[in-house]
# Entry
Amino acid sequence: MSDLDQILPAVSSGDKKAVSRLFNLLEDRRAEKIDEVAEALDKLYLQSLDRSHVIGITGPPGAGKSSLLSRLIQHLREKKKSVGILAIDPSSKISGGALLGDRIRLQYDASDPGVFVRSMASRGEYGGVSDRTFAGTIVLRSAFDVVFVETVGVGQSESEIAGFVDSILLVIQPGSGDILQFLKAGIMELPHVLAVNKMDLGEPAQKTLHEVRAALGHLHSGESDWQPKALGCSALDGKGIAEIIDVLGRHREHLTQNNLLEKNRTRQSIEWIAQSLRAMFGHRGVEKSGATGELENSGMNSPFETMQKLITEIDTLLYPASKTKE
# Structure
């Protein structure tokens, strides 16, 4: 029996040490473990297709994302929900590793067996999403009731987070003038819940909340029968936290009741594979291989094994001479 065979049951039961060990294997770039880790991730993927609630939390620097997330963690733990957090941090230019900024700002009990926090390097990805974020969310949703993926900021490519989460929470700072920029960038169409933080500031916060709600009146998330909700909250005094948790929970129920949860997660898997292949082989290479069309028509439910299989097939197709020499 391999180490991974022993780790997986412990991961599924929420054992923090086992989850941490699996993350270490994910970030190990040595080739000899890739196939074994892919097989393990496939097992977790299939077990977690309808499990957990994966929430993306994003917003501009200074909006108070980490402070708000600390409050959300506290509230969920009071409700006996286990919580996994994946903090996508900026990468160190020297080591390529995460700078741990978000983990340091988060306030939580590190000894609590029901809370797990992991930082992952963005590795310079525009929009703050690492190439291992997808795998990381699969691990966490296999182990915990609620999973948060916190990104480094807001940008035009922040739509990438939609490829890894079930719900998106956008945190907005009062009086920042961000609303117009969000509208121009199309960001207001992405979140399912918008939270104006720092409502303890009074009138400026109320004004921003009114502006957000007015803007939402002209937008729709594109999801059947779900209108994005704008709420006010304060990470300082904890007001509005329960309402945010409640609305996010209602969005999770909406996905389940409309048969969207598994459908969305399968679509995310296909998009993740397609984007990863394009990063490796370029658009022309993927088009030449026909891999994207194969994915869309296959009803694929095993993303990591499929990914490894397609890499081998495309590599052989594009570079047959090198394979012959070997």
